[in-house]
Amino acid sequence: MNDTELMVLPLVVRIERAAPPERTDALEAAAMAVLSLLDDPGEWGAEVRAWESTGKIRKVVRRARGAEWRRAAALPGRTLEHRTAEVRVHPPVPLDDWPRDLARLQVSGTELTDSGDPEPVVAGAAGPPVLWANPRLAMSAGKAMAQAGHAAQLAWWAGGAAEHDAWRAAGLSVRVRTAAPDDFAAKVAAGLPVVRDAGFTEIEPGSCTFVAEAPWLYGRLTRS
């Protein structure tokens, strides 16, 4: 196995004890941070291309607070602020060679909740792409953030220049919601971009975790 096959995209979510983010905000921020890097990798273009070329798009979410967050923010990367959430995306790194200040951060402890129900998404209404979570799977917020990032990436891959331009003009925004069980199955069957988990953590290999939906995604070939 070569080095590019072992690359991973690090994401760090800021979780301060006194003011943790809303769960939905954190999931949406993670997806938007991934999209930001795909749209404009900047000086990390070579790393992003090598990571994307494998098709594995592995992501790991870690949490930070206080001095940990400040150290993470000093490393190469960019921070996405979205309502109550702050998520920092770093350029892809080899799975076993993380920068020390990222490697020391905890993966566990990303249990976030929403203080209220997210605004419902009306079927057929105009708006940003929706990333639908599988209601039959229980995932920590960190796991769900990585899966939402996967779904956003598959939707990006499935789009063309016109769709990318429109999405960029809308700030690369997304909505993350939990689907009704029957609706989730129907969206998978419709051929929308679907994330099938590799099974490294929390859930069984091959589980469908998220589906991405936007009008322009119907009928597109996708990679998952």
UniProtKB/TrEMBL annotation:
Per the UniProt entry, the Enzyme Commission number(s) are 3.1.1.29
Reaction(s) catalysed by this chain, per the record, are: an N-acyl-L-alpha-aminoacyl-tRNA + H2O = an N-acyl-L-amino acid + a tRNA + H(+)
The record's listing under InterPro entries reads: Pep_tRNA_hydro_II_dom_sf (IPR023476), PTH2 (IPR002833)
Q: Could you tell me the keywords of this UniProt record?
A: Hydrolase
Pfam families, alphabetized = PTH2
Q: Which GO terms describe its molecular function?
A: peptidyl-tRNA hydrolase activity
Protein name (record): peptidyl-tRNA hydrolase
